[in-house]
Amino acid sequence: MADTHQLSQEAHDRLAAEFEDLTTRGRIDIARKIETARELGDLSENGDYHAAKEEQGKMEGRILHLESILEKAEIVELSAGGVDVVAPGTIVAVVYEGDDEPERMLVGSIEEQRDDVLVVSPGSPLGGALLGSAVGDTVSFEAPGGMLAVEVVAIER
Questions:
Q1: pLDDT tens-digit series, residues 25-54
Q2: Calpha distance 76→141 (Å, rounded)
Q3: Are the CB atoms for 88 and 122 separated by under 8 Å?
Q4: DSSP alpha helices (H): ranges in the chain?
Q5: Which one, of 116, 124, 125, 123, lies nearest residue 93 by Cα?
Q6: Measured in whole angstroms, how far is the alpha carbon of residue 139 from the centre of its chain?
């Protein structure tokens, strides 16, 4: 299935908890805000009402997004210890051709994002080129500015 979202169990649990919170407490809270704003009078010039409705729209968009991800989620088991090749859920350090400093990135869903690493989708040109590569491999991929090459210098879970 091309539309599956590969997630770690941790990310899946976090998204499921966020979905549950938004569909219960979140909807109740926003309904209260809208009701309180309605009581202030004329809706056409009521900034509180319009802000609450905008917040409701953003929250409902997030709920739909989470629902879609969770329906199509595939839990990726992350093994302990080292890994030999880049796979979804791995963190890889690469050095771009002509650079000296490695960049760390997680190959996976944006929902797996962490503060210390960039996230690259397995479906992106770079993510696709990295899948299956090992430490020491140099892979090339098509970027908007032309072909780029990166060397894999480390792989971790």
A1: 999 999 999 999 888 888 778 888 999 999
A2: 25
A3: yes
A4: 9-21, 27-38, 47-71, 125-130
A5: 116
A6: 24
Region 51-79: what's the mean pLDDT? 90
CA 106/CA 87 separation, integer angstroms: 10
d(CA 96, CA 78): 26
Question: Letter for the amino acid at 32?
Answer: R
Judge residue 106's burial from the number of C-beta atoms within 10 Å of its C-beta, 0-12 exposed, 13-18 middle, 19 or more buried. buried
Identify residue 112 by its one-letter amino acid code. E
Check pLDDT > 50 for residue 1: no
* Residue whose tokens read 């056409």: 44
For residue 123, the one-letter residue type is G
Q: Does residue 138 contact residue 150 with C-beta atoms inside 8 Å? A: yes
What domains lie within the chain, and their CATH numbers?
A: 5-75 (1.10.287.180), 91-156 (3.10.50.30)
Beta strands 138-143 and 118-120, pairing class? unpaired
Q: Structure tokens of 10?
A: 């941790």
Closest CA to 12 of 91, 87, 69: 69
